[in-house]
């Protein structure tokens, strides 16, 4: 079966999650206007203001007054980038949706290449960074280990260098919107829904104004969400480890008994006990902690709280 040919003039929404990006928005708006107008007459920017405390709102409302096809949605507080993307995907109603950062690191020019990939039949066109030179070694190593781990122990393949900068066909957007989970690790979810994906290499530009919002702590938190949402392996490790430890303990106990009975060696005393006790309390606390990570997330899911709340929605189509 061949798919229906795609309409080059299909509508296109660009979702920009923004947290204190007022300084970067005007230049980005201008670039987007230039790039998008050349692609389709039916384009629109959907700015998700993730509880900014700067002039983001004023800049956006000014742009709307100046005639930019922009819809400004303000969340009721800062919910985080994954939640802002989730909001954008839920509110966008175009035939295809582009997700990109609002800080100018994602070059709007690449949207033209994504558009071509979509016309060629791709359901998802995804920008892949061709280098990570500008990142510190801690972040690079952490990222590598994280993707190694997730990809080794789940049936998904999450490409390590593909971020949130991508174009999604309507049906991919619908698939993502239908996922009910509250712990939203978007990079995993894109991989989970599947569909025909094309990868386009790009080099992220330096941030224009402000600085990154992702500290090491926040990245670690995201990594935990990613691991717990896509792998049960950390839970399973402990049952096998428990089995191995029990066997070792049994063997050691048997050995002491044999030594005592055959050679009359005295049974070794407190040092073994203390070391054993400390080691195994550590292992137990660690395993309880890991189980706790999962239980905490189950708790998040069963509470069924919304992922985000909208406080203001200006420029929505009527
Ligand atoms: N962002 C957001 N909410 C947050 C943190 C970040 O909407 O709580 C947005 C931010 O405004 C930017 C994008 O997510 O448009 C990427 O953030 P950032 O540039 O800080 O991340 P990095 O590029 O360093 O990974
Ligand atoms: Mg950035």
Automatic annotation (TrEMBL):
Transmembrane segments annotated in the record for this chain: 237-258, 270-295
Record InterPro entries: Glyco_trans_2-like, Glycosyltransferase_2, Nucleotide-diphossugar_trans
One Pfam family, short name: Glycos_transf_2
Domain of life: Bacteria
Record keyword Protein biosynthesis present: no
Localization, UniProt: Membrane
Enzyme superclass (EC): transferase
Positions in coiled-coil regions: none
Membrane topology: Multi-pass membrane protein
Principal location: membrane
One MF annotation (Gene Ontology) recorded for this entry: glycosyltransferase activity
This enzyme's EC code(s): 2.4.-.-
Keywords of the record: Glycosyltransferase, Membrane, Transferase, Transmembrane, Transmembrane helix
Glycosyltransferase 2-like domain segment(s): 14-174
Protein name: Glycosyltransferase family 2 protein
């Amino acid at each position: 079966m061949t798919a229906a040919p795609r309409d080059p003039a299909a509508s296109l929404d660009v979702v920009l999650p923004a947290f204190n990006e007022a300084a970067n928005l005007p230049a980005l708006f201008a670039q987007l206007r230039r790039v998008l107008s050349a692609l389709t007459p039916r384009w629109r920017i959907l700015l998700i203001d993730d509880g900014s405390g700067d002039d983001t709102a004023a800049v956006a409302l000014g742009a709307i007054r100046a005639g930019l096809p922009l819809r400004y949605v303000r969340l009721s507080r800062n919910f985080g980038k994954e939640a802002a993307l989730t909001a954008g995907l839920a509110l966008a109603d175009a035939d295809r949706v582009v997700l990109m950062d609002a800080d100018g690191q994602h070059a709007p020019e690449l949207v033209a290449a994504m558009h071509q990939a979509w016309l060629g039949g791709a359901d998802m066109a995804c920008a892949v960074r061709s280098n990570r030179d500008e990142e510190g070694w801690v972040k690079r190593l952490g990222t590598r280990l994280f993707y190694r781990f997730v990809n080794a122990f789940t049936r998904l393949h999450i490409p390590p260098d593909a971020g949130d900068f991508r174009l999604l066909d309507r049906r991919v957007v619908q698939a993502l919107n239908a996922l009910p989970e509250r712990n939203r690790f978007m990079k995993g979810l894109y991989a989970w829904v599947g569909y025909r994906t094309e990868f386009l290499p790009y080099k992220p530009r330096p941030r224009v104004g402000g600085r990154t919002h992702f500290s090491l702590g926040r990245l670690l938190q995201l990594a935990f969400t990613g691991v717990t949402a896509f792998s049960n392996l950390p839970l399973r490790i402990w049952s096998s480890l428990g089995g191995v430890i029990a066997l070792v303990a049994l063997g050691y106990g048997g050995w002491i008994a044999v030594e005592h009975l055959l050679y009359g060696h005295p049974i070794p005393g407190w040092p073994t006990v203390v070391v054993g006790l400390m080691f195994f309390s550590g292992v137990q606390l660690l395993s309880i902690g890991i189980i706790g990570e999962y239980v905490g997330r189950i708790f998040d899911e069963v509470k069924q709280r919304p992922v985000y709340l909208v406080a203001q929605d200006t420029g929505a189509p009527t």
